[in-house]
Batch of 3 targets.
Target 1
Amino acid sequence: MFETGRMLLTDELLFRYKRCRRRTFLDVYGNVTCRQEKDFLGILREERELHNQKVLQYYNLKVEQPRLWGERDNKKLAAITTQLMSQGVDGIYQGVISVDILDKDGDRVTLMASPTLLVKQNIPSRWGDWSYFPVNASLGKNPKPEYKLILAFVVDILNRIQGISLSRGEILLKDNSSPHQVDLAIWLPRAQELVNECLEMLKTKEIPDVYISRQRCGFCPWYDDCYQVAKSSLHLSLIPGITPNRYELLVSNGIHNLETVCQTPLSRLQEILACEKEVATRIKQQSISLLSGKPILRQPNLLPLPQSSVEIYFDIEADTRRNVDYLLGVLWVDHDNMIQEYRTFLAKSPGEEKSIWRDFLHFIQKYPHAPIFHYSEYEVETVKRLASLYNTPASQLQSLLSRLFDLHRILTHSFFLPVENYSLKSVANYLGFHWRNPKTGNNSYNPTSIGGDQCIVWYDQWLKTGDSFWLDCIKIYNEDDCLATYHLKQWMADFQ
Ligand code: SF4
């Protein structure tokens, strides 16, 4: 990102740099045609907007918001924000602040940020008897270092503009009722250090190494690009169990990819990672499985897998934003009569959660001896949550819990599979199961484009538009999750 040949560093770029240096590099120099924005970001934007409104309510100020007709022009918005500050308005919502500095090589750089709120205080500055301190809204639950660094970056710009040294800067987190005060004596020097590092990386134009992390890369628009790079280089981050710390240890000891992990003796691996033999064995076995493309038995004795003439496969869709489990999907399989049927218990509005829970219980009770298979802990947690919320008798809950079998637990106890993570998508995909594209019905599964978060987007579309197309998309997706769980169970049963 350059402005008339001058480098521009924004709070957004710096925030991303803190999380992934490669992301900032690609945002500045990457080929935009390779970017793929995720629909779920729209939901996050709405959530941010709602949270911003809470911040405004908390400070309860008469605020001005710099606006322009037509295209967003940050330079003009910065000029309007400066004008509002000089006029001494009480608060400025979503203003833009910007300052030109010389970096350590003497090159001109523009620093720019958009704090959620600028609040007037009675401390003199170049404007007069007043100045402004910043407040940033954040959707996180904890005041993470990256939030504090960005707030300190904003303070640094404000200090330069106002000609003072602020001692106050606040972050309002999503679930907190009062703001978090950032200790600027600690975080200002760190933010300045981060700015220098980031500018240096951008100037050298050397792309930072890829590192695939499920949490960090999930919503990144460069995921497809990075994944291809990681895959073709047999990157260490694709091995389940390799944390950033372990990655650094391996690389600094000359172990750069999957192949070299497989070639390294177990004792050496254990020494490098300074870990238990069991951990080193797991990493090595996992790597061998990935490189060979074959499953490996982890234990001589597999955990028991119940068999019954009638079985149920269970999967839930939830809207975390509205705190509702809106779809309880079941695949009912009658092996003796070779019948299978997919049933949904669907809350068309969040208020219907109680009635779908009651209907689900009623259905499940009709088959008291059928084991209920699911994948991951979420189903157990949700059953407990719904039972507690809607006063389900303890005996009924216990009976239901005793019939739940978590295939994820059984699988990871028994096998190493040649997969990069043990999500249902990766595992079932490896076993030859393909999700349909719910929008077209075609078998065109793309693990990064469709997931539980996509269902949240569709449920949101349904609630906003009332178009049942979105409910159909969710049902197709959920049915495939149930079918994939069934596919996995069959594979494990055959193996046994
Ligand atoms: S996909 Fe991951 S490694 Fe690549 S830029 Fe995004 S966050 Fe960084």
Target 2
Amino acid sequence: MVTTWEDEKVKVKEENGIKSLISKRSFLKGEQICCVEGEEIKIPNRYSVQVSDSIHVNVKEPVMYINHKCDGNIQLIERAFYALKQIQLGDEITFNYNETEIVLAEEFKCFRCGQLVKGHKSKAEFPCLEIS
Ligand SMILES: [Zn+2]
């Protein structure tokens, strides 16, 4: 396991070729985790984050390495991510891509429920949302 990026709140770790965002301290619900910064683009790509109907932000580290989880622990409010629930030191930071993206540039399967994550236009049911 290698740390490839960090600030005082979070770090990007790489393990078996997969990068993920890990908390470096605990966060209370509502605390800001990181900001969505980068060039504004009109056409989404696999790393961009949708911030309005027509604006996507071409984010860099660390936001580009936040992995999907149907019941992720952060939410996007305007241009920043905030804790949706208490996050402990060492927890992976994840968010539900269906919440921010209308249509994903590249669909992928949720690694837990296997459902295709496509953006919130799709009407798929996500079993992992019912588990949590
Ligand atoms: Zn899922």
Target 3
Amino acid sequence: MSPHSPFRLYITGVTGTGKTSVAKKLTKLLSLEYLDLNTLVLEKGFYLGYDINRDSVIIDDDLITPYLETMITKKRRICLVGGIIPLKNVFDLIIVLRCHVDVLRQRLISRNYPEDKIEANIEAEIMNIVYYEAIEFFSDQNIIEIYNDKYSVDVTCDQIISIVRQHHSSVLE
Ligand SMILES: Nc1ncnc2c1ncn2[C@@H]1O[C@H](COP(=O)(O)OP(=O)(O)O)[C@@H](O)[C@H]1O
Ligand SMILES: [Mg+2]
């Protein structure tokens, strides 16, 4: 694996689909730097406020977009994890993690999420909102949906690595 070939990956998906688990493992396997969008937003104060209904911060796109553009361009090998932000022409590959709603509900119940937040996320998954947001912002050729429910995180990482091998082989050289 060449540490010199640039590779910028974006892992997104509804809450509970496994973004953090998959990205943490994958960044080790591919020698990428892990960057969590929510952590960055909180650290830098890139938010407009708090959405009580969604129980999440409202990201200030005007602040975060130029910051990330500069930062990601400098980093070269990075994996950003989070919801969709309008960052065009930056990522080599965008993975939308998917999860069967029965599995997703169980995961969110285990996290002790309130029922309305669980239902909001289930609805988002049924409507495949993250994928449709992604194709609105990015070139659809670079967006791939991967189910992370039946099999382990390791299997999901293997599937992503085989996509990288097919389309971005220099990253693994
Ligand atoms: N492939 C998988 N098989 C079983 N459990 C998983 C899998 N992927 C993630 N999980 C579990 O699902 C929960 C949500 O995963 P997490 O990575 O926190 O999702 P997200 O970051 O998208 O909210 C965690 O408890 C995690 O351990
Ligand atoms: Mg997470």
